[in-house]
Amino acid sequence: MKPILVVNSGSSSLKYQLIDMVTEEVLAHGLLERVSDHGVAFAQMLKEIAAGEPRLEGISPVAVGHRVVHGGTAFSQATVVTDQVLTQIHELASLAPLHNPGNLAGIEAAIAAFPDVPHVAVFDTAFHQSLAPASYTYAIDTAVASKHHIRRYGFHGTSHSYVASRTAEFLGRDLADLKIIVLHLGNGASACAIDCGRSIETSMGMTPLEGLVMGSRSGDLDPAILMYLSRVADYTPDQLDLLLNRESGLVGLTGLNDMRDVSLAATAGDPRSTLALEIYAHRIRHYVGAYFALLGGLDAVVFTAGVGENSADVRARVIVPLAHLGLTLDESRNAVSGGGARKISGEGAAVSVLVIPTNEELEIARQLLDVLEA
Ligand SMILES: Nc1ncnc2c1ncn2[C@@H]1O[C@H](COP(=O)(O)OP(=O)(O)O)[C@@H](O)[C@H]1O
Ligand SMILES: CC(=O)OP(=O)(O)O
Ligand SMILES: [Mg+2]
């Protein structure tokens, strides 16, 4: 047995999996929500693992993998955690204030609990280090951009990379021959254009705010709105941050943060929820069209994460209007809920439309092993 603990410390949650990397069997997993102190949450997690699974008594991880959201340009692959790496992650916190501080707290708690095993950080941004300058450069004064490290970094890379590999496996094709658009639709959401296994464009930007409509984040908007609000309504930077990161997206449009609730409300006839669903799908279609153009061809569109894997309604709202791009949906296949990787496009379609459950924790554990074995 080769047990590896994977910790995904979010802004307010801690997700974990203990995986035996000989068989890739999940020995224990869990989610602690509304976490304010990651040290306390970590201790709670260890108790849960010990209490829930008597067979795990005495089993201790041989290494710990950590999701870190922002790696800036410093990290293009999984990295063994050292004091210097911790300092760098800390310095990147200003670019990801919702995510990096929690990630760091989780790493520190894990090192205190398991001081004698290697800890490896796996960065959301790493997969997007392949972006070309034309896609990662914002068209602003280059001196300002360079001084303040302003560029597109992109996020959810661990998920996009895992899902792209699973897509190739599922289609029985070589990843190096495929053009894929992955739609990671969770609480945070992003699209990614993947050519030959490399990320060539992605919708999140310098921070995880840009791009698609999310649970509580606005995604794309005219940046002049910020100047306008600060001038006419005295919004401070912190108030703008709160508005766009926590009070926008689905919650701003409907009062509801969870896609399940928005769907139910729309079905019950609430016009705000119906409009929110239309905006949500419209933005996704906008990116699918753009990425189709950038990729210069398309083999698969893949839905993943909480909304992508579970909402047949959202998938239909995205795909059905895109018939002119060769995208089709088989209604009965789309209606199936649960299960693993599956095709939901019609028979003989030029482009495969797939649902592929993501597994960031397994991907983190695999990358950890690659680093330690290298
Ligand atoms: N059956 C479902 N129908 C629609 N949305 C769902 C369903 N199940 C889960 N979701 C949505 O998935 C989102 C969470 O996705 P997840 O990938 O777990 O996000 P995160 O990892 O960012 O917390 C929630 O907003 C929830 O609305
Ligand atoms: C980067 C990001 O938005 O992550 P999450 O979806 O977990 O919030
Ligand atoms: Mg997630």
From TrEMBL:
Identification of the protein by name: Acetate kinase
Swiss-Prot/TrEMBL GO biological process terms: acetate metabolic process; acetyl-CoA biosynthetic process
Cofactor mode of binding and number, as noted: Mg(2+). Can also accept Mn(2+).
Function: Catalyzes the formation of acetyl phosphate from acetate and ATP. Can also catalyze the reverse reaction.
Residues annotated as binding ATP: 15, 184-188, 258-260, 306-310
Gene behind the chain: ackA
Higher taxonomy: Bacteria, Bacillati, Actinomycetota, Actinomycetes, Micrococcales
Binding-site positions, Mg(2+): 8, 360
Annotated site location: Transition state stabilizer: 156, 217
Compartmental location: Cytoplasm
Cytoplasm found in the keyword field: yes
Organism whose genome encodes this protein: Alpinimonas psychrophila
NCBIfam families: ackA
Family to which the UniProt record says this protein belongs: Belongs to the acetokinase family.
This protein's GO CC annotations: cytoplasm
Cofactor: Mg(2+); Mn(2+)
Keywords: ATP-binding, Cytoplasm, Kinase, Magnesium, Metal-binding, Nucleotide-binding, Transferase
Pfam families reported for this sequence: Acetate_kinase
